[in-house]
Amino acid sequence: MAVFVTHSVFREPGWSRLHPLSGNRQAAVIDICEMLQWFDEDHVRLCDFASRETLTAFHDADYVDAVRDASASGQVSADVRTRYHIGTMENPVFERVFERAAASVGGAIEAARCALDHGCAYHPAGGTHHGKRAEASGFCYFNDPVFAVQTLIDSGATPVLYVDIDAHHGDGVEIAFADHPDVVLISTHESGRWPHTGAGDGASPANAHNFPLPRGVNDSEFMFLIDGPISEIAAQTKPKSVVIVAGADCLDGDPLSAMALSNIGFWDAIDRIRSFAPTQVILGGGGYNPWTTVRTWAGLWGRLAGFDLPHSLPPAAQEKLEAMSCDLIDTEDMRPEWTTTLCDQPNRGPIRDEVKELARARVVA
Ligand SMILES: [Zn+2]
Predict the structure, then answer these.
(1) CATH superfamily for domain 2-362
(2) In the chain, what are the domain boundaries?
(3) What digits encode the pLDDT tens for the residues 271-308?
(4) Sign of CA dihedral 177, 263, 10, 151
Protein backbone atom coordinates (compact mmCIF):
# COMPACT_ATOMS: atom_id res chain seq x y z
CA MET A 1 0.00 0.00 0.00
CA ALA A 2 1.16 3.55 -0.71
CA VAL A 3 0.64 6.40 1.75
CA PHE A 4 0.50 10.14 0.93
CA VAL A 5 2.08 12.29 3.65
CA THR A 6 1.27 15.97 3.98
CA HIS A 7 0.59 18.84 6.42
CA SER A 8 -1.93 21.67 6.38
CA VAL A 9 0.91 24.24 6.24
CA PHE A 10 1.58 23.17 2.64
CA ARG A 11 -1.85 24.52 1.70
CA GLU A 12 -0.72 28.01 2.70
CA PRO A 13 0.67 30.42 0.10
CA GLY A 14 4.27 30.52 1.38
CA TRP A 15 6.84 31.93 -1.05
CA SER A 16 6.56 35.47 -2.38
CA ARG A 17 5.42 36.17 -5.93
CA LEU A 18 8.88 36.87 -7.27
CA HIS A 19 10.45 33.61 -6.09
CA PRO A 20 10.73 30.57 -8.43
CA LEU A 21 8.64 28.63 -5.92
CA SER A 22 5.78 31.13 -5.87
CA GLY A 23 2.49 29.57 -6.86
CA ASN A 24 1.63 26.82 -4.45
CA ARG A 25 2.63 23.56 -6.11
CA GLN A 26 1.72 21.43 -3.11
CA ALA A 27 -1.81 22.79 -2.74
CA ALA A 28 -2.41 22.24 -6.46
CA VAL A 29 -1.12 18.65 -6.35
CA ILE A 30 -3.54 17.86 -3.53
CA ASP A 31 -6.42 19.70 -5.22
CA ILE A 32 -5.94 17.76 -8.44
CA CYS A 33 -5.66 14.45 -6.62
CA GLU A 34 -8.92 15.28 -4.85
CA MET A 35 -10.59 16.25 -8.13
CA LEU A 36 -9.54 12.89 -9.56
CA GLN A 37 -10.95 11.19 -6.43
CA TRP A 38 -7.55 9.78 -5.57
CA PHE A 39 -7.55 10.94 -1.96
CA ASP A 40 -9.12 9.07 0.92
CA GLU A 41 -8.50 8.91 4.64
CA ASP A 42 -7.00 5.43 4.53
CA HIS A 43 -4.14 6.56 2.33
CA VAL A 44 -3.36 10.05 3.68
CA ARG A 45 -1.27 10.75 6.80
CA LEU A 46 -0.90 14.20 8.31
CA CYS A 47 2.57 14.72 9.76
CA ASP A 48 3.69 16.88 12.68
CA PHE A 49 6.17 19.73 12.63
CA ALA A 50 9.61 18.38 13.49
CA SER A 51 10.50 19.61 16.97
CA ARG A 52 13.60 21.63 17.78
CA GLU A 53 15.05 18.52 19.40
CA THR A 54 14.44 16.52 16.23
CA LEU A 55 15.86 19.21 13.96
CA THR A 56 19.01 19.57 16.04
CA ALA A 57 19.82 15.88 15.57
CA PHE A 58 21.26 17.06 12.23
CA HIS A 59 21.17 20.86 12.11
CA ASP A 60 23.12 23.10 14.46
CA ALA A 61 20.94 24.47 17.24
CA ASP A 62 21.94 28.09 16.62
CA TYR A 63 20.96 27.72 12.96
CA VAL A 64 17.59 26.17 13.80
CA ASP A 65 16.95 29.04 16.23
CA ALA A 66 17.97 31.59 13.61
CA VAL A 67 15.45 30.20 11.09
CA ARG A 68 12.77 30.12 13.78
CA ASP A 69 13.45 33.71 14.90
CA ALA A 70 13.59 35.02 11.33
CA SER A 71 10.29 33.35 10.56
CA ALA A 72 8.65 34.83 13.66
CA SER A 73 9.98 38.37 13.22
CA GLY A 74 10.01 38.51 9.42
CA GLN A 75 13.53 39.90 9.35
CA VAL A 76 17.17 38.92 9.73
CA SER A 77 20.26 40.88 10.68
CA ALA A 78 23.15 41.27 8.25
CA ASP A 79 25.20 38.95 10.44
CA VAL A 80 22.58 36.19 10.34
CA ARG A 81 22.16 36.65 6.58
CA THR A 82 25.90 36.26 6.04
CA ARG A 83 26.32 33.35 8.41
CA TYR A 84 23.27 31.23 7.53
CA HIS A 85 22.26 32.47 4.06
CA ILE A 86 18.68 33.18 5.11
CA GLY A 87 16.89 36.38 4.21
CA THR A 88 18.54 36.38 0.78
CA MET A 89 16.92 36.41 -2.68
CA GLU A 90 17.57 32.68 -2.87
CA ASN A 91 16.40 31.72 0.61
CA PRO A 92 13.98 34.47 1.59
CA VAL A 93 12.20 34.84 4.88
CA PHE A 94 8.44 34.63 4.43
CA GLU A 95 5.51 34.03 6.72
CA ARG A 96 5.75 30.65 8.46
CA VAL A 97 8.92 29.64 6.63
CA PHE A 98 10.12 27.87 9.77
CA GLU A 99 6.89 25.92 10.07
CA ARG A 100 6.99 24.97 6.41
CA ALA A 101 10.57 23.75 6.70
CA ALA A 102 9.87 21.94 9.98
CA ALA A 103 6.86 20.22 8.37
CA SER A 104 8.98 19.07 5.44
CA VAL A 105 11.23 17.32 7.97
CA GLY A 106 8.29 16.00 10.00
CA GLY A 107 6.83 14.66 6.75
CA ALA A 108 10.07 12.94 5.74
CA ILE A 109 10.27 11.17 9.11
CA GLU A 110 6.60 10.22 8.90
CA ALA A 111 7.07 8.99 5.33
CA ALA A 112 9.97 6.76 6.42
CA ARG A 113 7.87 5.31 9.24
CA CYS A 114 4.88 4.76 6.92
CA ALA A 115 7.13 3.12 4.33
CA LEU A 116 8.46 0.74 6.99
CA ASP A 117 4.87 -0.17 7.90
CA HIS A 118 3.23 -0.16 4.46
CA GLY A 119 6.00 -0.44 1.87
CA CYS A 120 5.74 2.91 0.11
CA ALA A 121 5.18 6.48 1.24
CA TYR A 122 5.11 9.70 -0.79
CA HIS A 123 5.81 13.17 0.62
CA PRO A 124 5.81 15.53 -2.35
CA ALA A 125 6.54 18.59 -0.18
CA GLY A 126 9.82 16.96 0.88
CA GLY A 127 13.04 16.76 -1.08
CA THR A 128 14.93 19.81 0.23
CA HIS A 129 18.23 18.16 -0.70
CA HIS A 130 20.49 21.25 -0.69
CA GLY A 131 20.01 22.12 2.99
CA LYS A 132 23.23 22.06 5.04
CA ARG A 133 23.91 21.48 8.72
CA ALA A 134 24.07 25.21 9.47
CA GLU A 135 23.20 26.94 6.21
CA ALA A 136 20.25 27.38 3.88
CA SER A 137 20.97 26.68 0.24
CA GLY A 138 19.07 26.47 -3.04
CA PHE A 139 15.60 27.24 -1.59
CA CYS A 140 16.19 24.61 1.15
CA TYR A 141 16.29 25.60 4.84
CA PHE A 142 16.46 22.17 6.48
CA ASN A 143 17.36 18.93 4.74
CA ASP A 144 14.38 16.60 5.02
CA PRO A 145 15.86 13.73 2.94
CA VAL A 146 18.62 13.44 5.55
CA PHE A 147 15.95 12.75 8.17
CA ALA A 148 14.19 10.16 5.99
CA VAL A 149 17.48 8.31 5.45
CA GLN A 150 18.41 8.56 9.15
CA THR A 151 15.00 7.23 10.25
CA LEU A 152 15.51 4.18 8.01
CA ILE A 153 19.06 3.67 9.39
CA ASP A 154 17.76 3.91 12.94
CA SER A 155 15.10 1.29 12.11
CA GLY A 156 17.67 -1.11 10.69
CA ALA A 157 16.35 -0.94 7.10
CA THR A 158 19.93 -0.88 5.84
CA PRO A 159 21.68 -0.51 3.54
CA VAL A 160 19.71 2.57 2.48
CA LEU A 161 19.96 3.46 -1.19
CA TYR A 162 19.40 7.17 -1.89
CA VAL A 163 18.47 7.95 -5.49
CA ASP A 164 18.12 11.62 -6.43
CA ILE A 165 16.68 12.32 -9.89
CA ASP A 166 16.23 16.09 -9.41
CA ALA A 167 17.95 18.10 -12.17
CA HIS A 168 20.39 19.45 -9.57
CA HIS A 169 22.99 17.48 -7.64
CA GLY A 170 21.84 16.37 -4.18
CA ASP A 171 24.85 17.98 -2.52
CA GLY A 172 23.43 18.40 0.99
CA VAL A 173 22.57 14.73 1.32
CA GLU A 174 25.92 13.67 -0.15
CA ILE A 175 27.78 15.75 2.43
CA ALA A 176 25.59 14.46 5.28
CA PHE A 177 26.21 10.78 4.49
CA ALA A 178 29.70 10.94 2.99
CA ASP A 179 31.40 7.57 3.58
CA HIS A 180 28.54 6.37 5.78
CA PRO A 181 28.78 2.56 5.84
CA ASP A 182 24.99 2.03 5.65
CA VAL A 183 24.17 4.49 2.85
CA VAL A 184 24.83 4.42 -0.90
CA LEU A 185 24.09 7.65 -2.78
CA ILE A 186 23.13 8.01 -6.44
CA SER A 187 22.37 11.33 -8.10
CA THR A 188 21.44 12.00 -11.72
CA HIS A 189 21.54 15.68 -12.62
CA GLU A 190 22.27 18.05 -15.43
CA SER A 191 25.98 18.67 -15.94
CA GLY A 192 27.20 22.23 -15.43
CA ARG A 193 24.23 23.34 -13.33
CA TRP A 194 24.28 24.86 -9.90
CA PRO A 195 25.53 23.75 -7.31
CA HIS A 196 28.35 22.52 -9.64
CA THR A 197 29.16 19.50 -7.49
CA GLY A 198 28.57 15.83 -8.39
CA ALA A 199 30.66 16.26 -11.52
CA GLY A 200 31.99 12.72 -11.39
CA ASP A 201 35.51 14.11 -11.10
CA GLY A 202 36.55 12.21 -7.99
CA ALA A 203 35.65 15.01 -5.59
CA SER A 204 32.70 13.09 -4.14
CA PRO A 205 32.97 10.45 -1.39
CA ALA A 206 33.39 6.77 -2.32
CA ASN A 207 29.78 5.88 -1.48
CA ALA A 208 28.41 8.51 -3.91
CA HIS A 209 27.73 7.64 -7.55
CA ASN A 210 27.08 10.73 -9.65
CA PHE A 211 25.72 10.88 -13.17
CA PRO A 212 26.20 14.38 -14.62
CA LEU A 213 23.99 14.34 -17.72
CA PRO A 214 24.18 16.32 -20.95
CA ARG A 215 21.39 18.76 -21.82
CA GLY A 216 18.19 17.37 -23.26
CA VAL A 217 18.19 13.89 -21.72
CA ASN A 218 15.20 11.97 -23.10
CA ASP A 219 13.16 9.10 -21.64
CA SER A 220 15.17 6.42 -23.47
CA GLU A 221 18.50 7.78 -22.26
CA PHE A 222 17.29 8.10 -18.70
CA MET A 223 15.90 4.55 -18.60
CA PHE A 224 19.12 3.30 -20.22
CA LEU A 225 21.02 4.60 -17.19
CA ILE A 226 18.46 3.32 -14.68
CA ASP A 227 18.37 -0.15 -16.24
CA GLY A 228 22.14 -0.25 -16.71
CA PRO A 229 24.63 1.18 -14.22
CA ILE A 230 22.11 2.35 -11.63
CA SER A 231 20.48 -1.10 -11.47
CA GLU A 232 23.96 -2.62 -11.15
CA ILE A 233 24.79 -0.37 -8.20
CA ALA A 234 21.47 -1.34 -6.61
CA ALA A 235 22.16 -5.05 -7.22
CA GLN A 236 25.54 -4.73 -5.50
CA THR A 237 24.12 -2.69 -2.63
CA LYS A 238 21.15 -5.00 -1.94
CA PRO A 239 19.31 -2.18 -0.15
CA LYS A 240 16.55 -2.84 2.35
CA SER A 241 15.14 0.61 1.69
CA VAL A 242 15.31 3.31 -0.94
CA VAL A 243 14.78 7.08 -0.62
CA ILE A 244 13.97 8.80 -3.90
CA VAL A 245 14.19 12.56 -4.40
CA ALA A 246 11.78 13.02 -7.29
CA GLY A 247 12.48 16.61 -8.34
CA ALA A 248 10.29 17.49 -11.30
CA ASP A 249 12.81 19.95 -12.73
CA CYS A 250 14.19 17.08 -14.85
CA LEU A 251 11.04 17.32 -16.99
CA ASP A 252 10.91 18.93 -20.40
CA GLY A 253 9.84 22.59 -20.12
CA ASP A 254 11.44 23.43 -16.79
CA PRO A 255 12.71 27.04 -16.84
CA LEU A 256 15.71 26.44 -14.55
CA SER A 257 17.18 23.36 -16.26
CA ALA A 258 17.34 21.71 -19.66
CA MET A 259 16.53 18.05 -19.22
CA ALA A 260 13.72 16.67 -21.37
CA LEU A 261 11.94 13.82 -19.62
CA SER A 262 8.22 13.30 -20.19
CA ASN A 263 6.17 12.54 -17.11
CA ILE A 264 5.64 9.02 -18.46
CA GLY A 265 9.43 8.55 -18.53
CA PHE A 266 9.66 10.05 -15.03
CA TRP A 267 7.01 7.71 -13.60
CA ASP A 268 8.52 4.66 -15.32
CA ALA A 269 11.93 5.52 -13.88
CA ILE A 270 10.47 5.78 -10.38
CA ASP A 271 8.70 2.44 -10.79
CA ARG A 272 12.01 0.87 -11.67
CA ILE A 273 13.85 2.50 -8.75
CA ARG A 274 11.11 1.35 -6.38
CA SER A 275 11.81 -2.23 -7.42
CA PHE A 276 15.29 -1.98 -5.87
CA ALA A 277 14.03 -2.33 -2.27
CA PRO A 278 10.90 -3.42 -0.38
CA THR A 279 10.67 -0.14 1.59
CA GLN A 280 10.36 3.02 -0.49
CA VAL A 281 10.21 6.68 0.50
CA ILE A 282 9.48 9.12 -2.30
CA LEU A 283 10.06 12.82 -1.70
CA GLY A 284 9.47 15.79 -4.03
CA GLY A 285 12.22 18.29 -4.82
CA GLY A 286 12.62 21.04 -7.38
CA GLY A 287 10.20 21.76 -10.20
CA TYR A 288 9.85 25.33 -11.50
CA ASN A 289 7.32 24.85 -14.27
CA PRO A 290 4.18 24.75 -12.14
CA TRP A 291 2.13 22.98 -14.81
CA THR A 292 4.47 20.10 -15.58
CA THR A 293 5.40 19.77 -11.89
CA VAL A 294 1.85 19.63 -10.57
CA ARG A 295 0.63 17.21 -13.27
CA THR A 296 3.62 14.95 -12.71
CA TRP A 297 3.43 14.84 -8.92
CA ALA A 298 -0.36 14.35 -8.95
CA GLY A 299 0.02 11.61 -11.56
CA LEU A 300 2.80 10.02 -9.53
CA TRP A 301 0.38 9.61 -6.65
CA GLY A 302 -2.14 8.06 -9.06
CA ARG A 303 0.50 5.58 -10.20
CA LEU A 304 1.66 4.76 -6.65
CA ALA A 305 -1.90 4.27 -5.43
CA GLY A 306 -2.80 2.05 -8.37
CA PHE A 307 -5.29 4.25 -10.19
CA ASP A 308 -5.74 4.37 -13.94
CA LEU A 309 -4.51 7.73 -15.20
CA PRO A 310 -6.93 9.59 -17.47
CA HIS A 311 -5.50 11.24 -20.57
CA SER A 312 -7.56 14.44 -20.23
CA LEU A 313 -8.06 16.26 -16.96
CA PRO A 314 -11.58 17.02 -15.70
CA PRO A 315 -12.70 20.65 -16.27
CA ALA A 316 -12.15 21.70 -12.64
CA ALA A 317 -8.56 20.45 -12.77
CA GLN A 318 -7.97 22.24 -16.05
CA GLU A 319 -9.27 25.46 -14.50
CA LYS A 320 -6.97 24.96 -11.52
CA LEU A 321 -3.94 24.67 -13.81
CA GLU A 322 -5.06 27.57 -16.01
CA ALA A 323 -5.23 29.77 -12.91
CA MET A 324 -1.57 29.14 -12.08
CA SER A 325 1.08 31.53 -13.32
CA CYS A 326 4.83 31.55 -13.65
CA ASP A 327 7.02 34.61 -14.24
CA LEU A 328 9.82 32.38 -15.54
CA ILE A 329 7.86 31.09 -18.55
CA ASP A 330 6.78 33.33 -21.43
CA THR A 331 3.17 33.07 -22.54
CA GLU A 332 4.20 32.03 -26.04
CA ASP A 333 6.14 29.10 -24.59
CA MET A 334 3.06 27.70 -22.83
CA ARG A 335 1.87 24.41 -24.28
CA PRO A 336 -1.87 23.71 -24.32
CA GLU A 337 -1.38 20.16 -23.04
CA TRP A 338 0.10 21.52 -19.80
CA THR A 339 -3.37 22.54 -18.65
CA THR A 340 -5.61 20.01 -20.42
CA THR A 341 -3.94 16.61 -20.05
CA LEU A 342 -2.38 14.61 -17.26
CA CYS A 343 0.03 12.44 -19.26
CA ASP A 344 2.68 13.71 -21.67
CA GLN A 345 3.58 12.00 -24.90
CA PRO A 346 6.65 9.86 -24.13
CA ASN A 347 9.88 11.54 -25.24
CA ARG A 348 11.80 8.57 -26.59
CA GLY A 349 14.87 9.09 -28.71
CA PRO A 350 18.33 7.92 -29.59
CA ILE A 351 20.85 7.22 -26.83
CA ARG A 352 23.74 9.57 -27.47
CA ASP A 353 27.35 8.40 -27.28
CA GLU A 354 28.03 10.64 -24.28
CA VAL A 355 25.27 8.89 -22.32
CA LYS A 356 26.62 5.47 -23.32
CA GLU A 357 30.07 6.58 -22.21
CA LEU A 358 28.69 7.77 -18.87
CA ALA A 359 27.13 4.33 -18.36
CA ARG A 360 30.34 2.51 -19.32
CA ALA A 361 32.42 4.61 -16.96
CA ARG A 362 30.09 3.94 -14.07
CA VAL A 363 29.67 0.20 -14.46
CA VAL A 364 31.10 -1.28 -11.30
CA ALA A 365 33.09 -4.42 -11.99
ZN1 LIG B 1 16.47 20.89 -8.66
Answers:
(1) Histone deacetylase domain (3.40.800.20)
(2) 2-362
(3) 999 999 999 999 999 999 999 999 999 999 999 999 99
(4) negative
